[in-house]
Amino acid sequence: MGDDRKIKGAVDRINNLPDVILQHILCFVPTTKVAISTSLLSRRWRHLWCEVPSISLDVDTLTAASVNETLTRYTAPMTKSFHLILENITENIPYIDRLIKFAMSHNFENLSLDLCSSYEEFKLPDFFYSSDSFKQLKIYSHKIVPYCTVSWTSLQKLSLRFCRLSDESMSKIISGCPVLENLTLYDCYKLKVLDLSKSLRLRTLLVHRNMGAEGPRQIVAPHIHCLRLLHSQSSCTLVDVASLTEAKLDICYALSNPNFKFKAEPLQVMVLKNLEKLQNAEKLTFGGNFVKILSLAEICGVPFPILKVKSLTLDTVICKYVIPGIERLLQNSPDLEKLIVRGKIYNSMPGEHLDQYLKLKSLSPDQCWKSKDGFSWNKSRLNVQPKHVTSFMELVLKNTEKLDKIVVLLDERYLTFKIEYVIPTLPHNSNVTIVLSSTNKPMASEELTSQKKEKRMTEDMMIKGAEDLISNLPDGILQHMLCLIPIKLAMSTSLLSRRWRHVWCEIPSITLGGDTLTAASINETLARYTAPKTKSFDPLITPITKEKIPYVDRWIKFATSHNVENLSYFKQLNIYSHTIVPFKCTVSWTSLHKLSLSCCSLSDESMARILSGCPVLENLTLYHCGKLKVLDLSKSLRLKTLAVDRNVMVPEGPTKIVAPHIHYLRLLDSRPSCTLVDVASLTEAKLDVCYALSTSFFKSKADFLEDMVLKMLEKLQNAEKLTFGGNFAKILSLVEIRGVSFPMLKVKSLILDTLIYQYVIPGIQRLLQNSPDLEKLIIRGRTCSTIPEEHLDQYLKSLSLNPDQCWRSKDGFSLNNSCWNLQSKKLDKRVSTLSQKQCHHCVLHQQGDDIRLVMADVRRIKGAVDLISNFPDEILQHILCFIPIKVAIKTSLLSKRWRHVWCDIPSLTLDVDSLTAASVTETLTHYTAPKTKIFFLKATKREDIPHIDQWIKCAMSHNVENLSLDFPRPYYEEYKPFLDLGSSFCEGYKLPGFFYNSSSFKQLNIKLSLFGTMVSECSVSWTSLQKLSLSRFRLSDEFMAKILSGCPVLENLTLYHIRELKVLDLRKSLLLRTLEVKRNGWVQGLTQIVAPHVHCLKLLNSQLPCTLVDVSSLTKAKLDICHVSMNPHLTADFLQVMALKMLEKFQNAEKLSFGGNFILILSLAEIRGVPFPMLKVKSLILDTVICQYVIPGIERLLQNSPDLEKLIVRGRNYNTIPEEHVDIYLKLKTLNPDQCWRSKDGFDWNKSCWNVQPKQVASFVELVLINTEKSLKLVVLLDERPYLKFKIEDLVETLPHNNNVTILLSTNKPMTSEEKALEEAELWFHVNAVEDGGTENRVPERERYIKSEP
Length: 1350
What we know:
By secondary structure, the chain is α/β, with parallel strands linked by helices. Helix content is 27%, strand content 19%. Helix 15 links the parallel strand 20 and strand 21 (536-538). The radius of gyration is 42 Å and the shape is globular. InterPro entries: F-box-like_dom_sf (IPR036047), F-box_AtFBL13-like (IPR053781), F-box_dom (IPR001810), F-box_plant (IPR044997), Leu-rich_rpt_Cys-con_subtyp (IPR006553), LRR_At1g61320_AtMIF1 (IPR055357), LRR_dom_sf (IPR032675), LRR_FXL15/At3g58940/PEG3-like (IPR055411).
């Protein structure tokens, strides 16, 4: 396998890089899991990841065993970064201390702990607080209480996010970090005073407080130089920031009720006090809300301090609410040199709140916001006009003295005009540079600069001391890399840094996209180019315009002055009359190895001069070169390759070729008179005839073509490798029909570029007969022939021959008369049936009477290595697990290497419906794997019954770990005789006795028909079984008890539509943690479940009774009722009793999920006044649409769940109990349905899922807020497909606001990240999912779907 564009002797430069560089590259992949996967690339990469200086582990996506295996193999002597992600702390507590200890034992410099949990009982170990290797530390979401002394003696950067942190704990941490330089506190709770006076080296501080976070009220930081402070409306005072030179401040303001009385005085006091502390700072950045508070202070006449700021950045839109504050800032900044206004929507403080505040002060808002200078200002960001921008510029110029530059970046999303229209109206000042741009176009350099400077304050992920290894590479390597990209991109690298400024100027190869560049830009590029020697120069001047003609000579002179080795002058020329006449000078290309002349008018004398000036020429290509008669290459002693192309558009060309030294010839000829005079050294050739002429010409010239072809064939007698095109083969067929003798050939490899049909068979047959040494024949079925078949028939008729008689096969073969109707034939008739679409290359190897078909690639390079086949058997077998077994077996035809690879694959999937019983038996006979991980068998035909025992025995003999037996109910018509007798496929078959005794099973899935029975007189012994799934058959209590007693390590049990089982007693299954039971409306099944050890339960119950006797260890559960809407008299009394009894058993569960029917039954119980138990649930999921029939039940659930922290409502139509049935039931109870469903709180609810309106969603959110006490996260996912008649955006503004509640509102199209997370969270219910590291597509269809669902 290879690429015909690959240069002979090319080196894999990536693999040849030092380990250090490759390991540095692997540091940038997302996780260590991805880095480990590179070990499959080749032996060179096998152990590279083991010494990567950076580790990133997402423990929630890995098993404990895989994490331990990774850390065991990690051997890096020098480590820099360790990133640990743990969302579910409760399940990973045993591993956290070990992982942290591992990081500390390897002296990681950069440690990041992402503990996304509110689990209070876990605390970081004491040894964590003592380390001299940490240089950067990030902790996300955890309570930090260092009971011991903190000693992080090398720590330079510390980032704490969403951490509960007291003043004492913070003081301990600061005292234990003597060299701390950078500190980030992001929404850290309980911290009151941040005293950094003892942190002498601290230079950068970032404090972020949102509306719900308690944070530092006072900041004492006398040594910091850079401060970024985003705080809420609560007070935050800068006590001491004496060394500050750069700062960014804003206020986090939450939108409140418009009637809320905006208390601006505390904010004004706080803002002005902070402003006083920033008097000596030279660089300041203020957000929109901060500027609005300054505007209020200015209107109220509060004095501002004088500032020494030189660069001021304002993140605000231009509107009337910020102008007074900006004007005062400019007047009080006499040294200001640069002003940047970034018109992004950072202003979340509504203007109406400001107006109401002014009215409370007995001030007229219109009068206050009116400009003193007569400027007209816009009220909102949505109506910015050109005059407002012009007025702002005039205001700035009027209030500044030393200003050097103004940059205004407008948000184009809200602009109703083009920026070009504003520029002529701007005021002019020779001392000030004005830059005006938009924010959603390619980012302006000014904005890039400002963002880079912000990153300098917040780049908490960058490791101090990390080197830019790419920039540290030698110039030669960087310039080689730049050769592989267009020159425009190469030049753009000069903007990266000073190191890169002049690197491109000496790259050894230049390719100028002349068709996309002007002559002036090309000249400018070449003027800056300073390389002493150039390997390749290609100006790509296509097409040549009048503008470029005067410069062509200059560009060629430039190339020769730089000693260019490879000059591509005209790569494509649309003028076919370019003439090369080197009469006036001598040609001297003394180092030229390859010469290509295309579409040139070239005389014999000119060609002779060129050849005499190229003493080391090795490769010559002449493409459509006219006027050349004799091509004499006898003096070109080193010339080895010649290619001559002549099409019908350029009929003139060489009629004689004298090339005694060439080894390879490619000739595509268009004239019936081209003679190979001397090609004595030829070993390889490719010939064809270019034909596109009329019938009359072919009749008159066919004899000449035949004569020319035979003469060429005589000259090729000694060549060992020949390639003939389709037209050439057709001419040979005519020669054979006329009985002209062919020369004998010594060819060993013959390639025919032709389709297989009657017009080429005589010629091919004669070639084969006259090639006694032929070892290899390749037929590439391409449509390369252009001689019409009608012309051949007309020519034969002109010779008084019958075409049908001539083309008839002498051997009796039936041949197609066109390339378009090729039919399938057997290989023993020597007819290939493969087309271009089926394979690149068809090779027929003949050994006696045996002909074997081999696939190849036309791009294969001589000497190339098949890296895939060189993989170890284990890797190849792992790959084959991902394809169907029939395809895997076919790989045995590839080569001897692959013949027996499939026989040891660790996974087998046998669907007998698509295979015969004989083929399955044959497959298993050849199967030799010592151990099988997955074996899946599906059979539905009655004639398969005698073979099933043998197949199961084969699987067990290979120590199968995951066995799936799928014997579903057959089609009714096919098995009607059996069904009439009460039998079926499964009743005619019983699992053998030896099946119940196995120590290798770890996962077992058995699926029979609803009429099947699983019975055995022997005992069950599945000592290693961890997962068991039983689906759709009859099972007695006694045999279920026998199964459970034989599975001592069972962890996961699924019962899907199991009949006759009454009591499920799991008391003796001590390790069982997950149970899933599903019963539909027709299947009588479990009536009692005793499962004291299970943690997770999923129960889809029918209308029949089912009691949870003991589920005392339960922490997670999902419940619903399967209702078949046939009987309008709903048996709701019984369902209510059953649902409430189940609810009592879930009192201690922390995570519950209820379906729509279950909630509807709860609603009926609430209407009838039945008492509900109190629940300790923290996370509640409701799979129901929002309508009047579920509201009472939901309301009661919320009231009885005081600890609820998260509520998710997935508005999908899981409700299958018809609303009419519910109303009929209430009427039978002498209740008025309309009265029962009427809301007590005055909300108006929809009656059906089809008419959900925005007001109903808003009402539902209000209902939730009324009935919950603690901080709650509410997620509502509406079903957009058939039900939603409005846009989500129209709903958001109507939602109620509550600082303690986070509301996420979305639809199910496209799936949001929240919904994806929920789908993933459901996976713990599905016990049939494959194990980690397994192959998903080898398991049954249902399990495969579940696994791939996220």
